[in-house]
């Protein structure tokens, strides 16, 4: 972890990481999104599905998932909120937060709301000083039991 003076600085760095990361995702820049994960990063966006591993695996999974929108132009936006950050002794960060997916279709003012998600990330400050996801696990509220 770089010499950030306080948890406030760490929160600011993580918030910027999330803002950039989610805008890459929502604009279909999947290679850039995958680059916000470590080289061995793991990503599971839907419970019960196998986690995508490595950056190329994450890109492939996002392309596969988004084929459903090929003939259905949509703007998806993932809204992140309530970010709880807990640093481990070794500087790795556990982040837990809410994510709400809004899907808007051309000419339709009201977006489709959902899924409402709980996200668990493991974040590291990588060798180049950038915040990256070592892993991301997304749970969907409607699948609770
Ligand atoms: O990257 C995320 C995601 C995500 O990629 C999701 C995808 O589809 C691709 C960060 C935080 C939350 C999410 C949530 C989802 C939802 C998931 C399934 C769906 O939209 O039906």
List the helices and strands and how they pair.
Blueprint (H helix, E strand, L loop, with lengths): L6 H20 L3 H5 L2 E8 L7 E2 L1 H12 L8 E13 L5 E12 L7 E14 L5 E10 L5
Parallel strand pairs: 1-6
Antiparallel strand pairs: 1-2, 3-4, 4-5, 5-6
Bound molecules: ligand SDN.
The site of ligand SDN has 11 residues, from strand 4 and strand 5.
Describe this entry's structure for a reader.
- The protein has 145 residues and is an alpha+beta fold.
- It has a single domain (7-143), classed as Nuclear Transport Factor 2, Chain: A, CATH 3.10.450.
- Helix content is 26%, strand content 41%.
- It has a six-stranded mixed sheet with strand order 2-1-6-5-4-3, with helices on one face.
- The mean pLDDT is 96.
- It binds ligand SDN.
- Ligand SDN binds at residues 25, 45-46, 65, 78, 99, 101, 115, 117, 119, 138.
Classify the secondary structure makeup into a structural class.
alpha+beta
Strand content: 35-45%
Uncertain residue ranges: none
- The domain count comes to 1
What bound compounds does this protein have? Answer: ligand SDN
Topology as H/E string?
Answer: HHEEHEEEE
Q: Report the CATH architecture.
A: Roll
Question: Please, how many helices?
Answer: 3
Radius of gyration from the alpha-carbon trace, in angstroms: 16 Å
- The CATH class designation is Alpha Beta
Say what the CATH topology is.
Answer: Nuclear Transport Factor 2, Chain: A
What is the oligomeric state here? single chain
**Cα distance spanning the termini:** 38 Å
Form type: globular
Q: What is the total tally of β strands?
A: 6
Please state how the strands of the largest beta sheet are arranged side by side: 2-1-6-5-4-3
Classify the helix fraction into a percent range.
25-40%
Overall pLDDT metric: 96
The biggest beta sheet is recorded as: 6 strands, mixed
């Amino acid at each position: 972890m770089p010499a950030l003076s306080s948890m406030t600085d760490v929160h600011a760095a993580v918030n910027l990481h999330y803002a950039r990361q989610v805008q890459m995702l929502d604009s279909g820049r999947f290679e850039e999104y995958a680059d916000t994960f470590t080289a061995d990063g793991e990503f599971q966006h839907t419970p019960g599905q196998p986690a995508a591993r490595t950056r190329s695996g994450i890109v492939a999974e996002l392309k596969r998932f988004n084929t459903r929108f090929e003939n259905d132009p949509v703007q998806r936006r993932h809204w992140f909120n309530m970010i709880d950050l807990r640093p481990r002794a070794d500087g790795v960060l556990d982040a837990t937060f809410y994510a709400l997916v809004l899907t808007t279709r051309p000419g339709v003012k009201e977006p489709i709301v959902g899924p409402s998600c709980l996200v668990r990330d493991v974040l590291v400050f990588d060798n180049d000083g950038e915040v990256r996801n070592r892993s991301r696990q997304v749970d969907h509220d409607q699948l609770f039991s």
